[in-house]
Description:
Layout: E1 4-8, H1 13-24, E2 28-33, H2 36-45, E3 49-53, H3 59-68, E4 74-77, H4 93-121, E5 124-129, H5 142-161, E6 167-174, H6 182-186, H7 191-199, H8 207-218, E7 228-231
Parallel strand pairs: 1-2, 1-4, 2-3, 4-5, 5-6, 6-7
The chain binds NADPH dihydro-nicotinamide-adenine-dinucleotide phosphate.
Amino acid sequence: xxxxxxxxxxxxxxxxxxxxxxxxxxxxxxxxxxxxxxxxxxxxxxxxxxxxxxxxxxxxxxxxxxxxxxxxxxxxxxxxxxxxxxxxxxxxxxxxxxxxxxxxxxxxxxxxxxxxxxxxxxxxxxxxxxxxxxxxxxxxxxxxxxxxxxxxxxxxxxxxxxxxxxxxxxxxxxxxxxxxxxxxxxxxxxxxxxxxxxxxxxxxxxxxxxxxxxxxxxxxxxxxxxxxxxxxxxxxx
Length: 237
Ligand code: NDP
């Protein structure tokens, strides 16, 4: 039976590229996100991708996905995003709540729901998509920086708690990646402002660059744990 990989946030950007890449590596891929139309198009192109409507902020949605799986060998906690660019002193509580709910608690819900299956697999791998924003701070980063630090801490703690069990925990921390959605949600839909971000760093990473790193990490021999990969565009300080 082929190994199964679950990728959250697979309807665009890094998640979509990762779903394609893991399918090419021979995994059955369960691709989850809220925009089912986009997942359907992806699945029509790649037969080993199964589209599943998933909202990582809703426990019942996460539980339904977990119940539908016969097995899970790889979980990629990718769903996430940044909402707003205000200084901390002016940060909106609803933005911070949303960033925590998707990035941090979304990853926690998925992890709790699928960890038993990752252990059962005998060679499970959990990938946590953090960011260079989880390694330092920057002005206007506020809630996103805090959420990505929290995800990193969750991954580190989990790895310690699971030492001795057949599960590996991998953190992938990209710098600037040019994706469709990320900068746009950060600038509240202002596409011109989003485009200017990428002008500041010529040669941002692509989603495929990150998908490559994920695919490499999850296909190492089972005794090899890649704790963390930090991947930046060459031009990013
Ligand atoms: P995109 O906006 O292109 O993709 C985000 C994905 O998350 C979408 O597929 C979206 O799907 C999904 N998503 C959002 N909310 C939910 C939810 N509640 N339930 C399920 N899925 C959800 O951004 P990226 O590809 O750039 O970002 C992917 C990950 O990479 C994020 O965790 C981000 O923080 C991280 N990252 C991005 C960087 C960048 O520069 N782009 C740099 C470092 C890290 P849908 O709306 O259909 O639900």
